[in-house]
Amino acid sequence: MTALDIQISVEEGNWPDEEALLAFSSPVLEVAAAFLASEEKQPLPKMPPELSLVFTDDASMRAINAEWRNQDKPTNVLSFPAFPVTPGSMPGPMLGDIIVARETLEREAVELEKSFDQHLTHLLVHGFLHLFGYDHMEDDEAERMESLETRILARLGLSDPYGDRTPD
Questions:
Q1: What is the pTM for the complete model shown?
Q2: Which residues bind Zn(2+) (predicted)?
Q3: Number of structural domains found in the chain
């Protein structure tokens, strides 16, 4: 596994305690980091890179989304890379922040007929890829990012969250 220095903060919402969230999140993100390093030849800093996971509620997420993206609504996950980075380039020692909203995650999991843990795993992988410069604003970028998500989730024993492809 690829070592990561993960800082956890429960800001708002009905989340498990920070220790339980770290125990859940660490293996997910370490598999994602190891996948990027081995399959995508993503360089990683020699010291374990640090990232912050913030767990909050829809009200807080709505405020963050309005402030940073001019979208006055909650969203499931937001990522804030610490430094500008493009896929395949060396990130800094601090990768950035991933913020997850509880109520949106729960609602989407029900709509997608996924368990809470399955959907949280997907959102963590999705947010993690953003910290490495992956995006989904353009069709080709979205296809690349979704392919990576699908392949990483397959390593974690989960099916394609987009339902339309098989892992490479």
A1: 0.94
A2: 126, 130, 136
A3: 1
